[in-house]
Amino acid sequence: MVTTEWIEAEVLKAVPDATVEVIDLHRSGDHFHVRVISDSFDGIRPLQRQKQVLSVMKQHIPHPIHALDLKCMTPAQAEIAGDTAFDPHGGGQGVHIRRIQKNKE
Predict the structure, then answer these.
(1) Is the pTM for the entire model greater than 0.90?
(2) CB within 8 A of 76, min separation 6: which ones?
(3) Neighbours of 105 (CB within 10 A)
(4) Residues 6+ positions from 52 with CB-CB distance below 8 Å
(5) Which CATH architecture is the domain 4-98 placed in?
(6) pLDDT tens for the 105 residues of the chain, in order
(7) How far apart are CA 91 and CA 55, in angstroms?
């Protein structure tokens, strides 16, 4: 089973200066919400930010990771971002849930 710490370490390979927050959405080790916050994202389009992270993570999708909700933002964007995570399988069609705390193993 994949842990939140392992996801964090993998993301840091792509964005070494980032603050990484990982939530195991179902506590199953295969559905994750990941916030990647970095000054290096300034001036970079959102899709390019995600591609940077996915360059490392894509080898782990669809196994052992089934779902990866990525939010890549600058620190200024993180300050005003909502306090929700998207669960792609929640409620059958996907649902936003509150990011109350990180579900560390």
Answers:
(1) no
(2) none
(3) 11
(4) 14, 15, 44, 72
(5) 2-Layer Sandwich (3.30)
(6) 899 999 999 999 999 999 999 999 888 999 999 999 999 999 999 999 999 999 999 999 999 999 898 999 999 999 998 777 767 666 555 555 555 444 444
(7) 30
